[in-house]
Every structure is written in C-alpha cells, then in structure tokens.
Amino acid sequence: MAEQFSILAVCTGNICRSPAMERLLAHMFAADEDVEVASGGTFAHSGWDMQPGTRERLRAAGADTDGFVAEQTTPRMLREADLILGATREHVRDMLTDAPEAGPRTFTVRHFGRILAHIEEGELPEGSSAERLKALVALADQRRDRAGSLRGEDDVVDPYMLPEDVYDQAFDEICEPLEALAAKLGTPSPPGAGFRA
Closest Cα to residue 190, out of 19, 7, 30? Predict the structure, then answer.
C-alpha cells in the first residue's frame, strides 16, 4: 500500500478560512489518492456548513464545496496529521499547547509559503506526492529561520461577519501560499490563473 500523507487546515470556527484551505488543497491533490486533506477549528462551530462568502469563492476557483461540516480539532487530529496549516499565529500556539509534538509539522499557511521560497525544487525527491510532501515538510521545518520568525503578515484575516472585500482579502492570503506549494511540487492548480477567480 502506498504511503499516505495527511494535511490538516485549522482556523477558529472552521467555517471560513480553514474550509477554503481544505477544499483548495483537496482540489490540488484530487488525482493523488495518497494525499488526504481535512480541516478543523480551535473553537469550531461544530456541525455548521462553511460561510457563503467562502463557498462562492471556492466555486469560482473550481473547488468542490459539497458535504462540508465544521468540526473541532482534537489532540489526536494534530498528532496524526503530517502537515498542519493554521490561519494565524494564535492557532499555531493553541494547537501546540494541545499537541506540542506536532511542532515540526505545524505552520501558519502564510509562513509556510514564505519558507517555500528557501527550498529548491531539485531538493525534493522523485516519487509520489506523499513522498515529495513528506520531504518538503522536513525541509520547511529546517528552513524556518531563513524565512524569519512569525509576524503579523503571517496571519490570514478573519472575514467572519465582515464585508465581501474582507473575504476577498482572506481568500487571496490563502491562495498565494497554496499556489506557491503547487508550483514547488509541480502539481496542477485549478483551471485558469491559479486559484483566484
């Protein structure tokens, strides 16, 4: 059986930012049975669907929005995920309080994107997406210092109950590092000019 790789996207309520990350990543790895993507919230609106502003932008990007249900992150989810992408520094702090052993695999999505600039494509092995992702996460952990410490620009703005332009900003802040990830792995992005509508 092929090696599996799991990605967990995390925000607060699991209804705006982390569903966007989850479904864009799921779209990116749709052809890769060895990559699984899920999401959760540190204070989740458990049982809710994603917010309409998130759904509209995902649909415009070509990603699936069906069947989403918000759920609370658990220490087990954090321990078992191979890559954890939080929306903000606060999410990272909260997750590492619950599962400190997940530290080498935990980043804010925007900091992860900045770290990718310090990894050359040639450093990744040939192989499946799972194998390449595993190597990429190990390199990203080693290269954190090259991208500098976590700072305000590494947070994705929370658009919950805010105007449409804030949803646009949040979606762009999520898409940029995910597009960088797709480029680094040589993985197809959704149709059109990257993820963004």
Answer: 30
End-to-end Cα, the chain, rounded Å:
37
Please return the burial class of 52, using the count of CB atoms within 10 Å of its CB with bins 0-12, 13-18 and 19+. exposed
- Please report, as a single letter, which amino acid is at residue 2: A
Confidence of residue 192 (pLDDT cuts 50, 70, 90): very low
Domain extent listing, the chain:
5-185
| pTM value surpassing 0.70 | yes
Q: Is the CATH number of domain 5-185 3.30.70.20? A: no
Tell me the one-letter amino acid at 120. E
Instruction: Name the one residue in this structure whose structure tokens are 């415009």.
Output: 60
Q: What angle do CA 187, 38, 71 make, to 5 degrees?
A: 155
Per-residue model confidence as pLDDT tens digits over 69-114: 999 999 999 999 999 999 999 999 999 999 999 999 999 999 999 9
